[in-house]
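Training component of the fellowship. As part of building independent skills, the fellow (R.M.) carried out the full modelling exercise for a liganded target. The chosen ligand was IPE. The inputs are recorded below so that the supervisory panel can assess the work.
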Amino acid sequence: MAAVPEHIAIIMDGNGRWAKARGQERFYGHIQGVQTVRNITEAATEAGVKYLTLYAFSTENWNRPKDEVEALMKLLVKTIENETERLNANNVRLTTIGDTMRLPEPVRLKFEECMKSTENNTGTTLNIALSYSARWEITEMARKISQDVKNGLLDSGSINDSVVASYMTTKAMPDPEILIRTSGEYRISNFLLWQIAYTELYFTPVMWPDFTKEDFFKIIADFQTRERRFGKTGEQIEKI
Ligand code: IPE
Ligand code: IPE
Ligand code: MG
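Fellow's submitted model of the complex:
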């Protein structure tokens, strides 16, 4: 049977609609969404997935109403406070990608504290995309590469796709084999554009607060039946 994927990325979507459908405020959906994050992190550990990247807050999400942004920032702090002990108990390492300098200081400090506390854990890496967008990341890559070329640290003739990948925020992890989006939306919303060049895509109508470990395991099982050809023919793949 095909191997368990090393890296799964998820666009966690549908919290607001889930809450509205229950006559509740959008924020109630975000609170439920945190439970799902806990369950799916556990599921990733159980399945032996090495990296789980979760899209928690996009660059574009800064444009949401001020109240919602503030409530989400507070929820992030509270969640990290509550969950750090469990992450350590489960041998999970926390990392972040994104323009974290834009985060309010208490949020940034909480994440830094949790990353420090979990840095030696050797199980699943839970990588949270915060104030992240792929175009921001690609723009930063271009800026850093041009600076290094200008400073004589990099020869422009030697730039290839592994050099570019080494300037991305995900440089320490393999590209995701699977990208999941919940809530029935069929778009990428500025997530990991470089990294998903050959990723298998899964779109599910389930809203993020309702997404279960079983849903997650089913996707992994389906992935294991897919033939990934990377531009070759099916016959070439069978011979390997
Ligand atoms: C995803 O749920 C969580 C974040 C983007 C923070 P949404 O808040 O986008 O929920 P919907 O899409 O409005 O239902
Ligand atoms: C994508 O969800 C961002 C996150 C899950 C953090 P959105 O709900 O912000 O995406 P759009 O606006 O519907 O594309
Ligand atoms: Mg949404």
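The panel noted the following from the submitted structure. The first helix runs from residue 15 to 20. The two ends are 14 Å apart (CA to CA).
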